[in-house]
């Protein structure tokens, strides 16, 4: 079984300063380095038959919880609410990593809209997918089969 291949994420792309005006004061903030994934991978899980997106973060030693949304399962940090893994079932029109990535993004957006996960965490993950889309598609299921 080949080793899982990870794509390194450039954190500076996600730590953009946000300027907010509070009365006469301007507050500048950016995403915590702990909220931005260090690496991302996709693979086709031979056991479940699902397409999986997985993310690595700084300080990942925390309990993980799972929520099921339609045919998707999201695994996230119990305390941080960071997305660690998204698993989607192959359905009609799926089995193609481009469609599967779109399904993963929809599941993440759903988790934000129903307040299962903080919108900021979901936005970062969807931005990571968008900015690494071509590399994730190259990894594709045929390159990373059966990885855990």
Layout of SSEs?
Elements: E1 7-8, E2 18-22, E3 25-29, E4 39-44, E5 51-56, E6 64-69, E7 72-77, E8 83-88, H1 97-113, H2 119-131, H3 133-143
Helix pairs in contact: 1-2
For the structure shown, list the relevant keywords.
148 residues; alpha+beta; disordered C terminus; 28% helix; 3 helices
Major β-sheet profile: 6 strands, antiparallel
In percent, how helical is the residue content? 25-40%
Number of helices: 3
Oligomer: single chain
| Uncertain stretches | 141-148
Using only C-alpha atoms, the radius of gyration works out to: 16 Å
What is the domain total for the residues?
Answer: 1
Annotation, overall tally of beta strands:
8
User: Which class of secondary structure composition applies to the elements?
Assistant: alpha+beta
Arithmetic mean pLDDT: 83
Main sheet: which strands, in order across? Answer: 1-4-5-8-7-6
* Fraction in beta strands: 25-35%
Order of helices and strands: EEEEEEEEHHH
Shape: globular
Kindly report how far apart the N and C termini lie. Answer: 10 Å
What would a concise description of this structure say?
The protein has 148 residues and is α+β, with helices and mostly antiparallel strands. It is built from 3 helices and 8 strands. It has a 6-stranded antiparallel sheet with strand order 1-4-5-8-7-6. A two-stranded antiparallel ribbon has the order 2-3.
What would you note in describing this structure?
- This protein is of the alpha+beta class and 148 residues long.
- It has one domain (7-143).
- Helices cover 28% and strands 28% of the residues.
- It contains three helices and eight strands.
- The protein has helices spanning 97-113, 119-131, 133-143; strands spanning 7-8, 18-22, 25-29, 39-44, 51-56, 64-69, 72-77, 83-88.
- It is globular, with a radius of gyration of 16 Å.
- Residues 141-148 have low confidence and may be disordered.
């Amino acid at each position: 079984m080949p080793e899982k291949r990870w794509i390194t994420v450039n954190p500076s792309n996600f730590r953009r300063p946000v300027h907010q005006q509070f009365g006469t004061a301007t507050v500048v903030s950016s995403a915590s380095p702990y909220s931005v994934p260090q690496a991302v991978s996709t693979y086709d899980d031979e056991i479940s038959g699902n397409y999986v997106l997985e993310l690595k973060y700084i300080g990942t030693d925390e309990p993980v919880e799972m929520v099921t949304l339609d045919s998707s399962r999201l695994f996230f940090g119990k305390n941080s609410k960071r997305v660690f893994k998204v698993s989607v079932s192959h359905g009609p029109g799926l089995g193609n990593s481009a469609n599967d990535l779109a399904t993963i993004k929809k599941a993440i957006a759903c988790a934000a809209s129903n307040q299962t996960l903080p919108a900021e965490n979901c936005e970062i993950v969807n931005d990571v997918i968008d900015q690494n889309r071509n590399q994730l598609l190259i990894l594709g299921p045929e390159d990373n089969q059966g990885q855990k």
